[in-house]
Amino acid sequence: MRSMTLPLLALALLLPAAARAGVVKEKEPNNTLAGAQAVDGHFTLDFSADIGNGTHVDNTSTTIPHVTVHGSGDGSFDYYSFYFPGAGSTAGFVVLDIDHSSSGFDSHLALWATNGDLLGHNDDYDYRGGAGGSVPKPHSDDSYDSLMTTYLSAPGTYVVGVGLWSASPVKGGYEEGFAGAKPRAGDFYTLQISVENVPVVPEPGTGALLGLGALGVLTAVARRRA
Ligand SMILES: [Ca+2]
Ligand SMILES: [Ca+2]
Ligand SMILES: [Ca+2]
Q1: Does pTM top 0.90 for this prediction?
Q2: Cα 188 to middle of ligand 1, angstroms
Q3: Which of 3, 23, 70, 195 has the most Cβ atoms closer than 10 angstroms to its Cβ?
């Protein structure tokens, strides 16, 4: 019986890790398109109150694969990449959404193809566009938090950039524009990346249940042996 304690403990320790599926912590350096941090393998369909499709009403967290990136500033632009398999489909709706940003963080978002072509960008957006997570400016429905949507049709790697107003997105990445367009030390933000038709990780709930099921089996085995 005692010999089963360690494996059971190890299994139990694995369970909280499963609950963090869909969440990625930023890793610097991620300062160029070529040096973007890949978020593949972290997409999930777990519910999040903060993920929408650009309208005021729809929460798309359980219908469009998404990943949540927790980023911070260090005086450099931040780039994140994902692979869109396409599969001959045009159903590659993409939503990029900044949430829970630090005070004074006037985000700017952009999306590039891997050859450097700029596909879209946004500075400010309606605070309700990406479900929860953003607050409006005073006397306005706009938020300093960015949101943009677009459609992908070609398979390939795509790169999301996070900068500050007045970063200028051009072919190949951001130009700084006026000084101060790079996220600064002390800044923090959450980036929601939603992409149709990308592979999702197994449901954390399922993983936890499988883990609990295995725990039950092991406990039963241990009891029989005791
Ligand atoms: Ca960076
Ligand atoms: Ca949001
Ligand atoms: Ca902004």
Answers
A1: no
A2: 12
A3: 195
Query: Is a pLDDT exceeding 80 seen at residue 210?
Result: no
In this structure, are 82 and 5 located in the same domain?
no
Count of domains forming the chain: 2
Same domain, 94 and 109: yes
What is the bridge-based pairing of β-strands 142-143 and 147-152?
unpaired
Contact 78, 183 (CB under 8 A): yes
User: What is the Å distance from ligand 3's center to 147 Cα?
Assistant: 9
How far the first Cα of the chain sits from its last, in Å, is: 5
Do residues 138 and 91 both lie within one domain? yes
- The environment of the single-atom ion ligand 3, i.e. residues with CB closer than 5 A, is 106-107, 123-124, 144
Of the candidates 178, 106, 173, 113, the one whose C-alpha atom is nearest the C-alpha of residue 142 is 106
